[in-house]
Every structure is written in C-alpha cells, then in structure tokens.
Amino acid sequence: MKPITLPKSRITSDHVTAKERWFGFLLGPAGTLLFNAVLATYLNVFYTDVLKLTNVWGGVFLMAFPIVSKVIDAITNVIMGQIIERTRTKEGKARPWLLLSALLVPVTGILLFAVPNGSETFQVVWIMLSYNLYYSIAGTIYNMSHGLMVPLSTRNTTERGGLSVFNNVASVMISGIIVALIFPMLVMPALGVNRSLWLLVMGILAVLTFPLTMLEYFYTKERITEEIGTTEAPHPVREQLAVIFHDKYWLLIAGYYLIYNLGAYFKNASLVYYCNYVLGTYNDGVTQMMVSVIGGVPMGIGIFAVWPLAKKFGKRNVTLAGFILYAIGGAICLINPHNMVIVLVGQFIKNMGGLPCAYVFMALMADVLDHLEWKCGFRCDGLSASINSIIVTVVAGISSGVMNFCLARSGYLAPEFVQATGQTVGFVQNAATQNVFTFFFLGFEIITAVMLIAILFFLNVEKVIGREQAEIKARREAEAGEEKA
To answer: 3-state DSSP call for residue 324?
Structure first.
C-alpha cells in the first residue's frame, strides 16, 4: 500500500516569512478561533435561553453533562497527543491533522445547533452526542495540531515571539471584533430565542472555518520536526511523563495555564448574563458591546507594544507586571459592579494588564518545550499539548457546570418569546442570581491574578534558554556528523 501523499506547504524558507505570519498564523486560524470564541460566549446561552434546559433533571443536567463530556474530551486529548507524536510525514507531525479538522469542525459545529424538535430525552441525547463530536473529536484534533504550530515552526526566539503575537491577534482581535461588537449590537437582538436563526448564523460561521483552516495548513511549516527528521522513534509515554513531572518549568507553566484558563472560562461563561442582568438590560445592544470594546481596545494597542516590551524586559517579567494591573482593574470594577463608568474604567485597566499573557504565552511555552528537549534529549510536544488541551477541556466543563448549577439553585429565569409582539423578553433576576454573575465575571479573576503573579515569579526559563538552544544545536550537528561517518 502506497503512503498517502499530502499537499505540500507553500512555505519553503528556513526562516519565518511574512506570508507565514499573515496567512498561516493570523488569517488561517481566524475561522475556527472565531467559531470557538462564539461558542465560549453563546453556546451556554443557547442551552439555557433558547432550549430552556436550566431546570432539566432539577438543574443537574446542565451541571453534569459538560463535566462528564470533558472527561471524555480529556481521554481523546491524551490519545490525540500520542497520535501526533507518532505521526511521521514530510509535512510534519501536527500539520497533517489540520486537514482532517478542516472538514470535521464545520460539520460537527453545525450539529451543535441543529437540535431537532422532540421529547426532552431526545434533545438531551442529541446535545450530548453533538457536544462530544465537536469538542472531543473535531475540536481536539484542531486545537492540538494548531497549538503546536508556534513551538514547532522555529527555534529562533524572535521569530517565535512574532508568530505568537500574530496567532493571538487572530484569536483576540478578529474574533473579538465580531464577538464584542457585531454579536451584542446586531446579531443577538435579532436572534432572540429563534432556533432557526441561531442555526443559520452559527452554520455560516461553522462553514467559514473550512477554507481558512486550509489556508493555515498551506502557510505553516514544521522546521523543528524537519530538523529532527522522520525516523526518530517516539519515546514511551511513561518516560515522557517522568520527564515533564520532574521539571519545575514545565510544572509552573502547566499550573499557570490551568489557573489562567479557570478564570478566563468563568468570565466568558458569565459575560452575557452579567451584561444582561447586572450591568445593563436584556440584549440592549450596548452594554456587552461597551464592556467588550473596552477589552478589545487594549488588545489592539498590544500588537505594537507588547512584543517590544517583552524583548526588552523579558516575557515573564512583562506578564507578571501585567497581572498586577489585572488584579487592580478587577478590584476597581467591584467597587460598584452596577455602575457602567466604574466597570469600564476597571475593565480597561484590567485588560491592559492582560495584554502580555494574551500575546506571549505560546512563546513562553515554546521555551519550556525546548528546555525539556535540552534536558532529556527528546521532544515532549504531543504529550505537553495533550495536557494543555486537557486543562482547557476540564476547566471549560467545570466552569459551565458550576455556573449552570448556581443558576438553577439561585432561581435564574430564562427569557421568554412573546408571540403577540414577536419579541423576546428578559426578566429581572433576583439578588442571588445577580451575585453569581458578578462573582464569576469580576471577582474570581482577581483571585486567579494573585495566584498567577506568584507562579510567574519562579518561571524564569528565559535566563537559560539561549544557552540550552545552542547546546541542542551542537548536539544535533554532532549526531549528524556521526551518521555521515
């Protein structure tokens, strides 16, 4: 049987090119990252407000099903990580899986919202199946292969930092413009609780992921994989686990990733509810837009400011200083979480502080992966990507499950469609429910910011990475010389 011939990358240079940055790391990932951003903000709203599942099984369903699903997702992450580690092609070990995800993501994404009319049991089964098809299979394949593009593209720390910035511009700005501006101002007021319109809009977004993911495939290149070659046998998982769990830098970066995402997912899950019921009124088209824009403006500024600062003062140091601002901004918001001016001022300061984390984390993670290679003599990319993906997976399930349970227990009232007027009406929520939204959107991230400051204080891998990369290069050259001899 002949091996499968994969389409070749359009990138042939040994150094990162402008086309690679713009097409492979900014425009290409924008489709799936945009769709994921919409899901992170609105999928739970679809379940609670459109399908009205808040009180199914006494409120237990929307608490338990995301958590159980994420356990399945965690398992598939481990499997996918090892599949990537054992993939040997001329086009790399992670990039080939972008091709499969380009098809799976739009198909399974549409199924999330194509919930047929039927009994409650039938809808519950459909939701569980579609959710796991998207997150446990399609999303896992894309997120893990995409997540390895920066670490595997180059060892040059300057080029790597640039790719990290472009990658996060796709995530933060392109998706942010649509999720922060267009959706709250125009889309959500028009959708209301109309299931057909939800399916139409989300289906269009899902379909857009296909051509853009193909663009990411064609305009990326795994230079580090090519440097190592396709004949190096993968090391046993047990051996890799022994390496990563005995390395302080890897444990610190994993802890950092866990805590940061825990705060971020609780905030995203509560954003729409907080804007609709605490700071503003239901789908007023202004409140969520204002909050999101104040978050997006600093992210736009960050394109020009963060990487120069990171090169001058260090990625770790700039990120640590940022989280100090992050905590201060969150505390300002809590002075009066019902006051628009106070909240917007606090959000602006908070998001200025969050800039370094948004733009340089992948570069910092790549340094840690190179450090592991220097330490043990082999790469742990697939396993590390698996664990990072598991962290995101578990945190997403916990945040959705815990918040949905709190909604059910605090007496959340889902909006209703009024047939006579053709409008969707949102109810005033009680004080307990409003406190749930306020804590998860504002309070919890102050706690996580303090924890992240403590972790970053010890994450000083940048002090050694230059010397270690030089030793890796010398080691590879020596091995190549021995093979020729």
So the answer is: helix
